[in-house]
Amino acid sequence: MIHVGLNIRGTKYCTHFKSLSLLCSFILNDSSTQEGEILPPTIQRLMKGYNKYLRPFFDNGPVTVGMSLDIASIDTISEINMDYTATIFLRQRWTDERLVFEGNKSLSLDGRLVELLWVPDTFIVDSKKSFLHDITVENRLIRIFPNGTVLYALRITTTVACNMDLTKYPMDKQTCTLQLESWGYNINDVMFYWTRGNESVSGLDTLQLAQYTVEDHYTSVSEAVYETGHYPRLVFHFELKRSILYFILETYVPSSLLVVLSWVSFWISLSSVPARICIGVTTVLTMTTLMMGARTSLPNANCFIKAIDVYLGICFSFIFGALIEYAVAHFCTLTHPDAHLLMYGHQMHDMDDEMNGMVTTISTHSNRAKRRKEPSVPSTPAPASTELTVSPSKPANWCLTTLATLRKILRFVSCCHIKNPHHIDNYSRVTFPLSFVMVNLLYWTYYLYF
User: For the chain, what is the HEC assignment?
Assistant: First the structure.
């Protein structure tokens, strides 16, 4: 850079001042001499006749490129955008027969000299946005070994798409991939391979993620088939399991407590209309707010019915059912023939248990005394002459069958008839909790083990 500046400045002075022509010629000659001494002699010999536009083994089969990864960090995993952002160290190795030199030590070069060498045209498949770190200089590493092996390392931050199945959210497991592929060289020119198999990727064991834990990871080798040919591809798979503790404290526990809170109305008198309506409406509105808040962190438009949506729907149904239960019980109380006694008389039932027991005992003894004083009336048998033998006809049989069917229907309706509407609350105190426990057992068993 200094010599170039001197060269330009000397040329300017030569143009305007003829007396400095000798100085100009000296600077120009010195500049050309120094430019040839930028590279050390070993690199000069290697670069002599080197063509970076031709791959190694141009006429002798494909060049094999080994790759390895070091995952520095996984910054964000977004369910809304269905992608993840990671910072990786990508290392590539290949052999270039044109770079063989004598010696037993490798040459570590400045990363800016990569412009003088041939490098693979590797790119990240499904990458939405990527950049190479350049502070304080471009984060590149070039190392040449005596046998012509080249080590090329990069530090990259990339945002990669990851298709997620959210049907079991937040008890889901997601498998994401990082795919490396050659852009212009097909399998006849370049072959990719992992240098150490599954151990070619490191850094995941010590990685700390906010919502996930890395369950498993492995590597694979495949080919990408396009209209222009078959291209080498390396795929790194890693499985992420979501931590459910946050969602239990944030969503599952509050929604379950709201369901339990709605059951408090079963222990409040049917005559306390404002209290029971207030509990029912408040729990319904709170549950609605909780459901809306749980969906803000997820895509608005998707085809997934998530596990958390199912649970919130179950809780909302139980809360709404408790409100409907009071409406039915109150309606049955108002339509009962003894509505006035049912609304206010039942409040004295618990206070009069002892008195009722005494009255019942006295009435029993009085009934027994009356039966002893009443004379027994013998039953008179009917005269035998009045007995008639009648054989029923077919229409009579049909009528009897119809009457029997109607009696069964009426008996069933009478069984369903609510004699005391206050028993609805008594039944609800048992059926609602038992049903909620059974539904929870089915829910957690299905989503955790199936």
Answer: CHHHHHHHHHHHHHHHCHHHHHHHHHHHHHHHHHHCCCCCHHHHHHHCCCCCCCCCCCCCCCEEEEEEEEEEEEEEEECCCCEEEEEEEEEEEEECHHHCCCCCCCEEECHHHHHHCCCCCEEEECEEEEEECCCCCCCEEEEECCCCEEEEEEEEEEEEECCCCCCCCCCCEEEEEEEEEECCCCCCCEEEEECCHHHHEECCCCCCCCCEEEEEEEEEEEEEEECCEEEEEEEEEEEEEECCHHHHHHHHHHHHHHHHHHHHHHHCCCCCHHHHHHHHHHHHHHHHHHHHHHCCCCCCCCCCCCHHHHHHHHHHHHHHHHHHHHHHHHHHHHHCCCHHHHHHHHHHCHHHHHHHHHHHHHHHHHHHHHHHHCCCCCCCCCCHHHCCCCCCCHHHHHHHHHHHHHHHHHHHHHHHCCCCCHHHHHHHHHHHHHHHHHHHHHHHHHHHHC
Read off the pTM: 0.71
Tell me what pLDDT residue 360 has.
Answer: 53
Residues of the chain predicted below pLDDT 70:
1-40, 297-303, 336-396, 410-419
Domain boundaries, the chain: 2-38, 47-242, 244-342+410-450
Look at domain 244-342+410-450 and name its CATH class.
mainly alpha
Question: Looking at domain 47-242, does it have CATH number 2.70.170.10?
Answer: yes
